[in-house]
Amino acid sequence: MSAAMDTESTYSGYSHYSGHSKKAHRQGRDRHKSPRSKDGSRSEKSVTIQTPPAEPLLGNDASRAEEGQDDNWGETTTAITGTSEHSISQEDIARISKDLEDSVGLDCKRYLGLTVAAVLGLLVFLTPIAFILLPQILWRDDLEPCGTVCEGLFISVAFKLIILLIGTWALFFRQPKADLPRVFVFRALLLVLIFLFVFSYWLFYGVRILDSKDTNYQGIVQYAVSLVDALLFIHYLAIVLLELRQLQPMFTVKVVRSTDGESRYYSLGHLSIQRAALVVLENYYRDFTVYNPALLTASKSRAAKHMAGLKVYNVDGPGNNASGQSRAMIAAAARRRDSSHNELYYEEADHERRVRKRRARLVVAVEEAFTHIKRLQAEEQQKAPGEMMDPREAAQAIFPSMARALQKYLRTTRQQQYHSMESILQHLSFCITNNMTPKAFLERYLNPGPTLQYDRDRWFSKQWTLVSEEAVTSGLQDGVVFVLKCLDFSLVVNVKKIPFIKLSEEFIDPKSHKFVLRLQSETSV
């Protein structure tokens, strides 16, 4: 029984495999025969591209040489291996190109909707003014004189239009937060209602006033005032449907990240599935810790090593009687699998010990670096003007004393791809400017923060796809499950309705709180 290693030609970005004859393949196999690697896994024929790590904190090769293998896990910018976190195939490339085309279509749809809403809003605000001005332009000499009441209606129309304009600007003219796959049903319903309402008013105005050339100008102005009043009521209806209806919590959603199982709970009101997905994503960037695929590498390599221990290859052929030896090897592999929990325990214990050690070194290094900084007062600035530095220069002066310890800690905790040298210097200068303590400076690096804390180019989730069995415009219901997918992971959302709670009242008479003291011979009272 022996293990066979396949030769594989690897290039940066693409892999080409050439066919050989059976004899040549056998000779190459015998020539390259070697024992299995330490992890016991075999390379697969797949093109895998890892994302490049962040800018290294220090370019010191000596410090890298002192690091162990676990600390230099992300040194290379491009790696092609059999087990990786990011893989791109022809289907992925086709899907990415389709997403780009869909994004162009979403932009066109968004601008079309904004154009229709703007044109309709302009028509709504110009309609009452046109109702008042058209009689003055077309049959001014035949109109009855406008009295005091009629002139007062002009002021009423003007102030109501101003109020309606401000309310419309506050409710509708907002910068969109996202591109939803479908239209917002209530918003589209309100646009249709306003269009039908204004159209009906114009139809009545054309038939009863323009055709007959009505001379009662005060009645025409009152007709315009009634239009403005109706528009204000429609605006109140829009506030109820778009803002107030969703405030009362009716559902509880559980959001689980598919890769590491991190979960959060949120309370939502009456929302459609696509708007609930938008609320979930807004809370995800704030509440969930940043997605770090490097933390999953160790568990995957350990699982691959244990699975590789169960593989048995019979190179000599089925003719030999090696069934007893095969059973013995399978039993040994099963015992090795049963003892895997001990390996996991010692690996985690060693990693925690190394993290605590380097965290202590980092804390001490940062505290010593901050002791060299002193904020100068106004009278001290006149004594030594040549020794003064701005916050950026002070950060650059003390950063080398803590850079080595910070670099080792970030590598050990697998966070170096999220913190470049420039971002650390900016954060350090910010802490110096605001007179913050070393503990406040280290808070960002000792505890992984939410996604919004890091630069946008460090995010692994920017474009999402909503997957749902129900229509995305339908409302939330008990038991609905939908998935939000991005390139590297997905968020599984499970909706549960908040149960109906029934409270009953029980009255207790304050005079009923009477007690007696029962003494026994054994008590000390």
From TrEMBL:
Which family is this sequence assigned to?
A: Belongs to the Vang family.
User: Does the keyword Transmembrane feature in the UniProt annotation?
Assistant: yes
What organism does this protein naturally occur in? Acrocephalus arundinaceus
- Transmembrane stretches, start-end: 111-133, 153-172, 184-204, 224-244
What is the designated name of this protein? VANG1 protein
Bias (Polar residues) ranges: 74-86
**Which InterPro entries does this one have?**
VANGL
User: Region Disordered: start and end of each range?
Assistant: 1-86
Q: Which domain of life is it from?
A: Eukaryota
What is the primary gene name for this protein?
Vangl1
Where does the record place it?
A: Cell membrane
Sequence ranges of Basic and acidic residues compositional bias? 36-45
What's its membrane topology?
Answer: Multi-pass membrane protein
Cellular compartments per GO CC: plasma membrane
